[in-house]
User: Fold these one by one.
Assistant:
Number 1:
Amino acid sequence: MQISSDLGGIPQKAIDGSTSSFFNVDTCTLTRAERVPWWYVNLLEPYMVQLVRLDFGRNIPATVMVRVGNNRPDLGTNPICNRFTGQLEEGKPLFLPCNPPMPGAFVSVHLEGANLSQLSICEAFVYTDQALPIERCPQFRDQPPGSTATYNGKCYIFYNRQPLSFKDSLAFCRSRGGTLVDESNPALQGFISWELWRRHRSDSNSQYWMGAVRDPQDRNNWKWLGGEDVTVSFWNLPGGNENCARYDGSKGWLWSDTNCNAKLNFICQHQPKACGKPEQPPNSTMVAKNFNVGAVIDYTCDEGHLLVGPASRTCLPTGFYNEFPPVCKRIQCGFPAEIPNGHYQLLNGTVGYLSRVIYSCDEGYELVGRAQLMCDIDERWNGPPPRCEEDTQTVAAVPVSPSKPTQPQTPSTKPRDPPAAPTRPSLPPARPGPQSPHQERPVRVKPSKRPAPSADSSPAESAHVPHVVVASHPQNNEIPDSVNVRSGLPPNVNVAHSVDEERREAGARLNLG
């Protein structure tokens, strides 16, 4: 359809299968001068439109807008597929892709210009990957060139060179694996009417058999060849009393009852034989015996790539595969983390998907954690790296060297080996003369100078403080507490200590003067 027609440029000429490098009224459309002229095609059912090609018949500067959708095209409300602004060149194709593909049953072309303008289209092409290519249909040597058309997953071959009776036409189609057209709906009727009109524009009296017969049990009822009742029909009224039916070119390709012995053209309806070779995804391997109906295609990805999508696809009787093709996504995890006192090795020399790394520790260290990791789908190694810790079970014992003697911080009551100095209060007096390093050395303690006690104070405990002898043994220089125990002395009495000894008293400190 289009907004108007001029000079016989009817809208059907844009999809008649022939184009021209210049304006030709026999094959190009033409509207009258309009402010916004438009033209559209009905695809009969929604398709995912990917690309629209337009061959224009006039040189004019304009803005071309292509819309795709299911609303009335003349309203201009369908979504915009693409837009072009510039000089339209006569006979030169203009490609307008829909990115992304857009669904719709109507594809319309709108011409916008500063002044009134005429829209002329010599040929329009609508591309979709949902339409069945004729290459997937049966091919026969004696079929007329260009006789095959496809619709809704089925193949239709139009035979117009050797008319046959209804019975012979049916036998001919069945011998080639097909049948006469034995179904109907508004979209299919529109498709067949268009194909017949396109093939017989100059011969409106052509006739074609269809696969419907009158019910012998009920003369008012018609049945398809498979035995189902005809529920959707497009009869040309009034009808007759014949038992077979045809597409009647003289009645706009509506149906008419016909004598079954008449010799007419016919249409064979076939299922596709194959789905065709699909496009192979990059970085993949595709395995299949053939691409006929029922065949299964298996996909595998190259090393380091992840298969996203189905691993296999099956060719259906509609001529299409049951799944979208998969994609092989490249996965890279990067080099693994280094670990102290250890190292790693890439088992297959790569860091791609499913690559593996194994960690090990240097001698004297043990591995804590997982030794082997794998590159996962998130482009990360599937776990943290392990650690190398010192192996305490295999470390040899090392002799401990003697340490320097130190003064004790607190007196110990437990004697140590070798034996300490005598723990008895009575100690032998020191003798004058030179002393060897291992001889006992007396330490004289000067009494502290304290104020004289008052008359009511207690007398001094002892006027004489005996000598304290300390054994100068290098391994044990602790003095047991028992040396501070004196017979008959009350607590808190000042006891003499070595001048070299660090000491702590709980009571008054001894002034060594």
Number 2:
Amino acid sequence: MSELRERTTADVDTVIGWVPDAAALYRFAGPRLTWPLTAQQMHDSAAAEGATAWVMDVEQRLVGHAQLTRCGDAVRLGRVLIDPTQRGRGLGRRLVASAVERARQQGAVRVDLSVLADNPAARRIYATLGFTPAPVQEASDMIAMTRNL
């Protein structure tokens, strides 16, 4: 059974351990965070963006991270990451579905996200959960996606 809960300070070092290099950091956070990733950066970026960071536990083991940021009547989903040793088990899909449900519970009417164009696994997960390409695209290496709730 999986549980989505708010990220605590104790979770941050585990999540940072899933980001082994600058390329992985860019996949996780885009250009806003810098290598090497620190707990202070994670805390400061979430606070500055008014975001709530969530983690997913499976059988009391931390396996995933996602961040939700309120943007008017929508929520922006970002910083989605699964423990590299746990990938390929459907946990990314479960994490995103749980985050979308959390956004719905918060009264959002839409969830928006950006995904790297060269990340087909993530793009497939988002598509299977009802996300479609947004009409306006942000950057050449990113695909903006949206889902109405």
Number 3:
Amino acid sequence: MRASDVLKGTVYEILAGDIDCQITDLADDSRDVTQGTLFVCRRGARTDGHRYIDDAVARGAACIVVTDDIGIPAERSAGRWGDTDGVLIVRLYDYRYGIGMICNNFWNFPSRSMKVIGVTGTKGKTTVACMIKSMLDRWGRRTGLVGTIEIDDCIRKIPSVNTTPGTIYLHRKLADMVANGAEYCVMEVSSQGLMHGRVSGVEFDICVYTNLAPDHIGRNEHRTFAEYGRWKRSLFSKCKTAVINADDMYSGCIAAEAVNAGAEVVYYGVRNHTAAGDGNVCMAGAIHRLILHRVMGIGYECERTDGESTYMTVGIPGEFNVYNSLAAVTTCGIIGIPMEVMQDSQSDMKVRGRLEPVEIPGYARIFIDYAHNAVSLENVLTTLRQYRPKRLICLFGCGGNRSAGRRKGMGFVSGRLADMTVITSDNPRFESPEAIMTDIETGVLEGGGEYVKICSRLDAIRYALEISDRDDIVLLAGKGHETYQDIEGRRTQMDEREMIRQILEEKNAGIVRRCDN
């Protein structure tokens, strides 16, 4: 494809080279460049793509797209970018719009070849997205997935690095889905993804809103809650139909954004039957906790304004999962999936790292959950407390280089709701794990709970299992689906399921390990 065709519809300035040179691929990481690649330089949070122009040219880039205001001719004469003779260099104006257009031109607008469903909110994105995909799969529709756990292009499943990947990689995977026969794509859309323009050029058919709560506020995320909410809200200016949680206090702002964009609005909820006015609505009636052979779940009466009422059984416990289920049911009802298909899908629903049970005969009931903020942890602990364990033991840490406010908040919640809190390390990144644990300890003390600090997560899990018995519940919070630990920029293998297995094997072999705290 000619560069002029790839750049069609964008605003750019030719600084050097032939605009009709041939482009064979797109990349925004110089390590991915091959002969004929168009390399997009962008200034990211950790590095600046303009620093890697020499490397991209050496690897065979045919076109360099710069976004800086730096004067290219002067810089070239100074030798900053080495020998770029024969390489097309253009300056792209309005990167956020332009990068999406470049991807769509190159991959032929892949999101137009599928029905794309976006899911956003502070909590519930992964569960709702997985529920929708499960229903579509059960209905026999080939469906791709982009989310926190993995990217599924209908042939391969690739572990995710970010909830919403970078623009070029995202469009590449959408194109792969189309090539693999996908009819639908379900996509988690994070506020960071929206702020950094990662979904630029993606055309959404349905967007789902779960909830909004203070989170992801800090130096490395969003500056204020207002900014965080503004980016969440922006997704609903891009869709044809909005599915909105009527019970959430910010639902009116989300609905207004959707209505202003000309979208149809459909509501779901448990309590707020009047918030939707005369609009379409799907509500939950009576809600029941379920325990079948020590496997927990929840059931509810699903009532729609068209008069249809169906009892739904969800294979994951918690009232918050009634909301998640309703979001998925409402979305799939719009698509036209029969209710009996949705019932079958929900009854055996499981999501990796979301109240995921680890069944060990003779031991406490163990759950692994991704809860990594105070609201999520409170929801999970409240849900588990409803099943009346003899003791509720909560193990967690907090991520480094993220909102410091989470630490005290999560500590307070666990101190108040758990019988024992085991404070440990999560992903310390470039912070001291001991300092993070001290911040958590402050909150636990305010919550008034019993606690212990054990920095090694393996030793912490060993301790939690040693002090528990069959009638207890042990919650391992924070890691969820993750199978690594991030320490000073390096990710090392760490899967809590494997840790539990290792601990039990050692115990069965008579090996005694001391837990230092």
Number 4:
Amino acid sequence: MDRSVTPSPGPRSPGRPREFDLDDALDKAIGTFSENGYHATSLGKLTAAMEIAEGSLYKAFRDKRGVFLAAFERYVMLRSELLAQELANTRTGRDKVRATLAVYAEYSHGKTGRRGCLVVGCAVDLASSDPAMAKRVAAVLASQERRLVEFIREGQEDGSVSSRVDAAVTARLLLCVVQGMRVLGKTGRSREEMSSLVDSTLKLLD
């Protein structure tokens, strides 16, 4: 599906929209918002990063908040697709928890780790002042928690997770761990440091 934004025919005057790839522009916006936070990202910084004219931004998204909302939804979609790919090769509930932890560990070191997580950043930067965004963040985190509960219960059924484990409480703890990984990643951790957390955290399932 064509996701480009195309200008009207005729000469382009200052401020009129130019053609640009929407997904590519949003990916650049994700990086900018993740690194700087919402409030510290000026409109000028955003248009420069997205490589679009200010008029194009207004036409496509209305304002900075509109860009952020679109970037947030794309970020969640892309991360969900990535996790789904990793989960496709798992067999047990424990394997699914491991794969989830490994994905978060991989995104919590080096340059990517320093960039940060848009969901975590939004929870810190916007959730207290923007009810609509607070609702979106809560929905994303609730979905992640439900998925972890499902993995734990699946593991209890297939024998890879102890029957003594409280699925709901442990899923909430795992959610704290993976989101904490993203916060810690902002401080500049190595792959080895973050990967070592995976096996230690899996002991919660014994």
